[in-house]
Amino acid sequence: MAFDPQQYKHVEREVYSTTAATYDKYGGETFRLYARRLLDGVRLKPGQHVLDVACGPGTASLLAAPLVVPDGSVVGIDLAPGMVELARKKAEEARLSNVTFREADAENVPFPDDSFDAVLCNHGLVPTTDRVKALGEMRRVLKRGGCIAISAWSTPERSLTISIVAKTIRDHFPTAIVPGAPMWFDFGPEGALEKALSDAGFDGIRAARHTIVQNMRDGEQYWESILGISGRLQMLLQNIPPDITSAIKSKQM
């Protein structure tokens, strides 16, 4: 099977839209922990303007918005309209008036050059089909002297939340892994993310590895959680016969 970037985006858009609520339910606290690490890195100040790329349910955006008041603002963009709708609802509930959300592709950011003091991307670079273009867009809209902060999964042995089921899929139905498709651990190897940023024209790059612990009561909760937070996993399972999916699930129990 050949990798089709446009079809991949179409499926990703639909999957992440329909799973927005479960993504937030099962992954909300974990991704908030990652987002706080990003915010520690950019050190936002009042009056700054921030872009959150592939914002999902607005996790990083909602944490950033109070840090830039009274005159600063945050804009979150995401490919999935369901994520954008949920992010808007959460902003309204939190009564945050300086954060907005809109549907947009990370590879075609709909803002002029030099628009933002900081760019955030909380695990959103991994699923892009053209990482070079996405990073180029982030650099384009970033003001001179601005700061970008990106989080990504580490290597499989350090990213057990994803890697356990990823290995099981590979063992049971290896053809579900399409060559050329984005994979969770692409930026895990030492220096991989730094090189991608450097190739995109960024300098002064600093990287750090963090450990986030998730506690599961049993295999059923693990399976529900991993399906809830990973649209990519759901995309893979769509290409696997139901009986093999059941076998994969049983291995997680």
Summarize this structure briefly:
The protein is an alpha/beta fold and 253 residues long.
Average predicted local confidence, pLDDT = 86
Segments where pLDDT lies below 50 for 5+ residues?
none
Category from helices, strands and their pairing: alpha/beta
Oligomer: single chain
Q: Reading side by side through the largest sheet, how are the strands ordered?
A: 3-2-1-4-5
CATH class, anyone?
A: Alpha Beta
By DSSP (H or I, 4+ residues per run), the number of helices equals 10
How would you characterize the largest beta sheet?
A: 5 strands, parallel
Helix fraction, binned, reads: 40-55%
Q: Which CATH-level-2 architecture?
A: 3-Layer(aba) Sandwich
**What is the 3D shape?**
globular
CATH superfamily: Vaccinia Virus protein VP39
**What is the terminal-to-terminal distance?**
30 Å
The sequence of SSEs as H and E is: HHEHEHEEHEHHHHH
Radius of gyration: 18 Å
Q: Which fold name corresponds to the CATH topology? A: Rossmann fold
Question: What is the number of independent domains?
Answer: 1
